[in-house]
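hiii, so i know i said id send this last week but things got crazy w the move. better late than never?? heres the sequnce for the chain we talked about at the cafe, plus the structure i predicted for it. fair warning i was half asleep when i ran it
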Amino acid sequence: MTYIALGINYNTAPVSIREQLAYPAEMLKTSLESLHTTRDITEAAILSTCNRTEFYYHTSADNPNKLIEWIADDKSLAPKDFTPYLYTHKDSHSIRHMFRVACGLDSMVLGEPQILGQMKTAYQAASEAGTLGKNLGKLFQHTFSAAKKVRSDTAIGSSPVSVAFAAVQLAQQIFNKLSEQTALLIGAGETIELTARHLSQHGVGRIIIANRTYDKAHTLASQFNGYAIALSELPSHLAEADIVVSSTASQLPILGKGMLESAIKTRKHKPIFMVDLAVPRDIESEAGDLPDIYLYTVDDLQNTINENIASRQRAAEQAEEIIDTEVEHFLSWLRAQGALTTIRDYRAQAEQIRDEALNKALSQLKNDADSEEVVKRLAHTLTNKLIHTPSAQLREAGANERHDIIAGARELFKL
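okay and structure toks below
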């Protein structure tokens, strides 16, 4: 049997291909059940994110042809449309690949933590679809264990590598309790959404979203129990904000020094922490000259991010060493499985010999035989029968100069 990991990711395929091979959560169960009926595939799971689609499966075949045929049929595609973008890993390489994916070492953002949750979703979906067995199920459990060890033993995820996260981390350093602060976010794009998500996860007290299109602001704000305003309402709400993060596509500044002076006066000179993530800038640079305004630009944060990327890369080297060890641990478990059948057969043989000798002894006791003699005979019989076959095999090995068998026997029996 073979472990295979087959897939595409952001490195091998453009989004136009990745979206064709995506499996939304609501489709996973049905797709897995269909895949499980494919000849030679005994266990299977599908990991599908915006950056990758990967199939993990246990198979009696040595190549992925059956899976490729199934994908082509399931997605109504010709194999030539997607096979140039595929990568395949087998056995120890597939095990290592799964560990690296779960640890964020194969992610677009090195060390990002979301992929582990997505891997757990893939495991849960396969479990519910009944497509996990002993082998793939054990591999997933070991994958989660390896990822946990990497997270706890390295700094792979401790340093922010996005400007949104860096901005929130800086806010945490400035304010003792984010739960007591109001954040005003200007814009409604991906960066602002990510900032809102990080602020919400860190328990910020209140979020206000301002955008040129009110409906977009409202849609985003509703995800975080926030409040939406139009850009024209900024002057009347700016004084409420302890934290301001702006990221729009405006060609002209949205917040000027004069507007901020008025807001500071209304706040009775209570400071405002401001982060301008826009290029061109949304906040006039002169605003940073005001004594109660602490203004940071994307360049200020980028220096921190570059340092953190270097830190993550150093942590990734440590993570690779941990993964090497964890792969070997899993391979040891796999090798041990190969001995289980022999162990079961040996135990069954010994139990049969025991039962035969015991039944004979019990029969003798029922016929009033001397109990001490019966016990001695039972011990003698068991000893002779249990060592008879190994002794005969060792004599034959000696006669044939099979010293390897004799050495193995001494190790096996600890002689």
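btw The chain has three domains: 2-156, 163-305, 336-412. thought thatd interest u
miss u guys!!
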